[in-house]
Automatic annotation (TrEMBL):
It comes from the Bacteria. PROSITE patterns: CHORISMATE_MUT_2. Its EC number is 5.4.99.5. It is an enzyme of class 5 (isomerase). It comes from Rhodopseudomonas pentothenatexigens. Residues 4-95 form the Chorismate mutase domain. GO terms for molecular function: chorismate mutase activity. This is chorismate mutase. One of its GO terms (biological process) is chorismate metabolic process.
Amino acid sequence: MTKPPSPPSLADLRQEIDSIDAQVHQLLMQRGEIIDRLIAVKQTQEVGSAFRPAREADMMRRLVQRHHGILPLDTVESIWRVIIATFTYVQAPFSVHADQSLGESAMRDSARFHFGFTVPYVAHFSASAAVEAVAKSKGDLALVSATSGNTPWWLALEADGAPKIIARLPFIERADHPAALPVFVVSRVADSAMVTEVETWSIRVSGWNADTARALSPLADVVAVPDTAFDGAALLVSIPAPGGLDQIKAALIAAGASLRSSALVGSHARRYTVPPSGKSA
């Protein structure tokens, strides 16, 4: 009678883990070597920021789709975010300027989760100050709230050559996310690198009231700052592209408001949600 194989010993299993750890480290170093070659290629073939929002969004989606097993998705997402951010920093050093006016700890958690500790973190007491710092920099990022605002900081993004909204974090949304604060990322990025699934528009209106706000609510995500001088408001509107702006304008007019101006101030990937079942949507 054949004797069943003995289960592996603790020493054997720990040796397997050590081997995997060494392989992971080796692969990271290999990635660094490729980034080093990429830097040389970019110097001759590509000009502009090292940020690639469309590529990052695609990488994070593929990460969720292939992930399985006992390792929490939170851990995997954080590891990949730090890898991406750190290697971007190696290509072109940058700082993260964060608006802490709506909560210091939540904003800091978001910055550290998505960009790690290698990238310098600079705190600001307003969104406008964070955006202004980015406008004066060569390639820094600003993190500002995607759901509320004390001032219409996005007006500074309207001009040609100004920084734009390039992403909305977290890339992957789910219940109990450790860095769940919704934030916009503002920076300068080449047009070819942008992801345009959702457009962000700066819209100024007259006749803003509760009825007007309710009319827009089913159509788009809106951040509104009242403008008492014109009995109106400055809006930051996130609209699924393309063609959503016309629907927004029609809804405003139907609700009794008048459009004073509109300007495209950025774009980002659509929300990628993982429901409690664990299957991405």
